[in-house]
Amino acid sequence: MSESPVDPRLVVSEQGLTGYLGEFRRKVKGGELGPLPVVIGLIVIWLVFQSLNSQFLSAQNLSNLSVDIVPTGLISVGIVFVLLLGEIDLAAGAVSGACAAVLAVLNVNMGMSPGLAILLAVAVGAVLGLIHGFFFAKIGVPSFVVTLAGFLAWTGFQLWVLGPNGTINLPSDGFVAGLTSTYFIYVIAAYGLAALGVAGFLAVSLIGNNRRRAAGIPYRTTGDIVFRTVVLAVVAFGAAYILNLYQGLPLALLIFLVVVVGTDFVLRRTRYGRSIFAVGGNIEAARRAGINVPFIRISVFVISGSFAAVGGIFAASRISSASQATGQSNVLLMAIAAAVIGGTSLFGGRGTTYSALLGMLVIQSIASGMALQGVSNSIQFMVTGAVLLAAVVIDSISRRSQKAAGRA
Prior knowledge:
The chain is an all-alpha fold. It has a single domain (51-185, 247-402), classed as ABC transporter involved in vitamin B12 uptake, BtuC (Orthogonal Bundle), CATH 1.10.3470.
């Protein structure tokens, strides 16, 4: 029996630096950019702002940044699912605000326990997403129209729930407020999470490699897996070190990372996730393959609504209140921008929930850096818009390159 083949693209590792440079040029020419543009962009942004203000990369600022990305980042995770179908959810911001209002009324005005109030608020988000998905998948209303109608309706619902005062304050020492104000001060927490993440990545990579080898399909070399693991370890333990210099591991960041990793596993490792990519890539081919397209479409909007609710809860936790401003203003735009800047295609069929994490890091880094410099919000919006346009241009060029190379 012949030995299972090694992925020919990874044979370049035997050629040293020359081989990797050649492989890099091949990927760029073929439009296989992956997260490279956003990672390079993030590094440039950090270097620029650090050169302008030495406080930018301080432990306190980076720790605050890691919590600030969570509310909108959670909404963006749900947006990623919708974008993978090549659709859009314009109601996510309004849903987040409405569900935050529901949480505040149940917890503060009606005296319900925080845990139950959170569950009911998320359930409301899922129901609102279900309504969007039903009209889109069953009635045939374009997602743009149905979610735009949802944006208007749920904004009104939010105002109605909050009542004439327009604001409901949450206990500053309560459970909900603690979601974004709790830190694990013991250094073992951050380092333990880093070690767990690196070990999990290595284990999943090795198990996947063994399965591919046993099936007789191309697999990565051991050296390549070790290299990727070392890079991840450097990033993870470096982040843990920085967080421990301030107040330790934020609970909000821990929850966000668990959500990102968990949803990425669902998308890449389950039949349901592969069905989402199939529908987003070619809906007719997916239907002929026996995929329940209406179910996939509806479920994706339910997921988006649920994560919008969770994001709204964390937004209310951050300021210890739910108000008419929660989920409004530029929240929706930033959630969509984060997903696109992070690498999720607007055309469907390509992306990952890590896009929400990377994209929010870029957006919040710009906001944080400009705030330290005293730059107005107007300039921040213009710069963020330019970054978003650059991300879409890169996505379009990447798709064109892939088509030219026969990979799209």
